[in-house]
Each structure stands twice: as structure tokens, then as C-alpha cells.
Design a protein that fits this description.
By secondary structure, this protein is an alpha+beta fold. Helices cover 51% and strands 10% of the residues.
């Protein structure tokens, strides 16, 4: 008749003293308490591994951190696995592996990979602004969640807190950031699909505030206001330069003399200065060439075309044009960025092909490869378009 093991008691365990060699106390059904010479007491589950048929031990924790009752529950869990021909040790390793993968695929970790890719597509200050939004609002709430756990029910609940704090516009920006990251995760094979594509509709809508601009018919009045404004000559020329070249405010204010090829009548803006992150060549109209000649005696010996008033080694601020327009009475009527909108509207009214117009403004359409290809292919066509725009602005100046 098989010997029956008497279950252990807490008193027996507490009284068990260390010996010169480690020894074990049996509780039954494979549960052992291993007592080591240093006095530590370790719970083990002794069992025969399925398929392999070899006997092994699985650690269940140390006493008294894991109590006798808890150790028995862990043993019973292991026995249930064995009844299904599942090796408890293999099962634990799989759980640990999955937990490690989930940790490495947390929302914040995936966001870091997305940031690395995104940094090659947009300006540094833009990605830093996006990242700051994530650090302030999303990471504290869902940063540690596995990317697979990011579902609408979780995200909406978290973003409601941001909305309640009076930031509905921030909520919609965060929805945009979130969807970019989840789409990146889909394309990287980390998740099957992005289920959060429409979550922004859950929140209060925010009125879009496009960069205001005057109508095409009002351009002559705008040009007259620029010429008659009591502003620094360089500021006046910067406004006109940005208007004529169709570039973004920071691309215009940071223009340096070394970027210009006057023989070819081209301005080559380096990729690192462009929002779309590829070199943008601006064909220079005769009006821009004449404007630059006005600048040459003022700043031709400096690095930048439009030097800072108090430090000639620095460029003008990208906010200079906006501030000047406000002083001229154009607050909420015309912004620096809105100058590009004026040009785009004009090109549309003139029947300029969509892809040609978008190339003039260095708008991102299609892949990065097609962007660069179209940009180079349309150069001569853009040369004609830029001259047409320059002629129109000159005509407005004479009205």
C-alpha cells in the first residue's frame, strides 16, 4: 500500500530549522518545501513532464512571501495544466515571453519607433511638438499598455479626461497622433488592424481655424499696404519675398545667400529646412531677382538674406511677417502662412494643373519618392508658373 503524505501545517513550517544539507518537507500531490542551509524556504512543484517523461521541479516562490495556502493553489493550477498535457514550466516560459513582448510593444515603445520614422518626414520642431503632446496627455494614461490593448473603449475613456479639462482641440490633435502611431503598428505587423480610426467623432467638434487670407481681388490693396507700412525695409521685402516664392514663413525668414544659384535663377532649400524633408528648388521670377538686388547692399555680406535687427549673425524670426501684418491692420484677415493660400487660389483660378500647383508650394502628395520625382520633373513648368505669379503681383503693385 502506497505511503500517504501528511499535509504540512504552518506551525511545522515555521519550526523547520536549517540543516547542514538542504532537505525537503512534502505536502502532497507534488508540493515540496525545500529548506536550505542558509535558512531560506522555497516552494517547489515536483512533476513528470508530459511527452518527455522526465521528472523536474518548478519553483513556486519563497515562504513566507508565498503562504502555504497560496502554494497549494499554485500547485493545483499546475496539476490542471498537466491534466491537459501542458507542461507547467513551458507554460510559464510562454507567459513570460508574451509579457516581455507586450512590454517591448507597449504604446510608448511603438510611439518611439514611429517618432524615429516621422523625424525623417517633418521638421525637428514639428515632431518635438507632437512628442510633447504625447508626453503630456497620452503616455501618462496609456503609455504602458500593450499596443494590442489600445482599443476605442480604452482610448475614449482616457481622452474624455483631456476634453473635460477644456482642451477639445487638443483631443482632436491627440486622435491624429494616435492614429498615425496605430497605422504605423499595423504596417509594422505589430497589430492586425487600427480600430481607433473614427474615435475623433466621439468628441466635440472643433471649428477649423484655417490661416486667414484676403480674397484675390484684395491683393492690390494688400500690396499697397505693404509698401506704405511703417515697417523696416527688410521686413517689407521679407513679406514680398515670401509672397512671391510661395514658401513657408520659416523657410523664407531663414533663407541664406549660399542657397541661391543666381546663374540658374534658382533657390535650393535644403531638405533639413523643409517640412516635407526633401530639397525644394524654387525658380526665381524676375520680380524675386529684383527684390534680392535690393537686399544685396543691406545683407549681402552676411549669412542670411533677412538678418535679425539686433544680431546680424542671426536670421529674422519666422513670426516677423505675422507681427507686421497685425500692425498693418490685417489681424484675423491675413497671416504669413495665408500668403501661400493666396498663391494657391490664384493658381487654381488660372487653371494650373493640380500636381504642378502642389509642386510649387512643396505640398506633400504621394510617397516621398514620387514627391522628389515630380518636383524635379516639373521644374521647367514651375519656372513659367512662378513668373506668371510674379507678373501678377507686379501688376497688383501698379494698380
Amino acid at each position: 500500500m502506497a505511503r500517504r503524505t501528511t499535509p504540512l501545517t504552518d506551525t511545522e513550517i515555521k519550526k523547520a530549522k536549517p540543516k547542514e544539507k538542504e532537505y525537503s518537507l512534502c505536502d502532497g500531490y507534488g508540493l515540496l518545501l525545500r529548506i536550505k542551509p542558509n535558512g531560506s524556504k522555497l516552494w517547489l512543484f515536483n512533476y513528470i513532464r508530459p511527452i518527455l517523461g522526465t521528472r523536474t521541479n518548478l519553483g513556486l516562490g519563497t515562504y513566507p512571501i508565498v503562504s502555504l495556502a497560496e502554494a497549494r493553489m499554485l500547485r493545483d493550477d499546475c496539476r490542471k495544466l498537466l491534466a491537459q498535457q501542458i507542461d507547467p514550466k513551458k507554460h510559464r516560459e510562454e507567459l513570460e515571453r508574451k509579457q516581455l513582448m507586450d512590454t517591448q510593444s507597449s504604446f510608448e515603445k511603438v510611439a518611439e519607433l514611429w517618432k524615429e520614422k516621422k523625424s525623417s518626414e517633418v521638421e525637428e520642431k514639428t515632431i518635438n511638438k507632437y512628442w510633447r503632446n504625447l508626453e503630456l496627455h497620452l503616455f501618462p494614461l496609456i503609455g504602458r499598455y500593450s499596443i494590442k490593448e489600445i482599443k476605442p473603449s480604452l482610448v475614449v475613456q482616457m481622452l474624455k479626461k483631456v476634453e473635460e479639462n477644456g482642451s477639445p482641440d487638443m483631443v482632436h490633435r491627440l486622435c491624429g497622433h494616435l492614429n498615425e502611431i496605430l497605422n504605423f503598428a499595423v504596417n509594422s505587423g505589430l497589430i492586425e488592424s487600427n480600430t481607433c480610426l473614427k474615435i475623433s467623432s466621439t468628441f466635440k467638434s472643433v471649428r477649423q481655424r484655417n490661416n486667414p487670407r484676403v480674397s484675390i481681388e484684395e491683393i492690390p490693396t494688400l500690396i499697397k499696404s505693404i509698401h506704405s507700412a511703417k515697417i523696416e525695409k527688410k521686413t517689407q521685402l521679407l513679406i514680398l519675398f515670401q509672397l512671391l516664392t510661395m514658401v513657408r514663413p520659416n523657410e523664407a525668414s531663414n533663407a541664406s545667400w549660399s542657397e541661391f544659384d543666381f546663374d540658374k535663377k534658382e533657390w535650393n532649400i535644403p531638405a533639413e529646412r523643409m517640412k516635407v524633408r526633401f530639397l525644394h528648388t524654387v525658380p526665381l521670377s524676375s520680380q524675386v531677382m529684383a527684390l534680392i538686388e535690393q537686399l544685396r547692399p543691406m545683407t549681402g555680406h552676411n549669412k542670411y538674406l533677412f538678418t535679425h535687427r539686433s544680431d546680424l549673425k542671426k536670421a529674422m524670426s519666422s513670426s516677423t511677417v505675422n507681427m507686421a501684418l497685425k500692425r498693418m491692420g490685417y489681424k484675423d484677415k491675413q497671416t504669413a502662412h495665408g500668403l501661400r493660400g493666396l498663391a494657391r487660389t490664384f493658381l487654381a483660378e488660372q487653371g494650373v494643373q493640380h500636381e504642378h500647383a502642389e509642386a510649387c508650394l512643396a505640398h506633400k502628395t504621394g510617397s516621398q519618392v514620387s514627391l522628389a520625382y515630380n518636383h524635379a520633373n516639373y521644374l521647367e513648368k514651375r519656372r513659367d508658373i512662378m513668373q506668371m505669379w510674379g507678373d501678377y503681383i507686379e501688376k497688383c503693385s501698379q494698380s
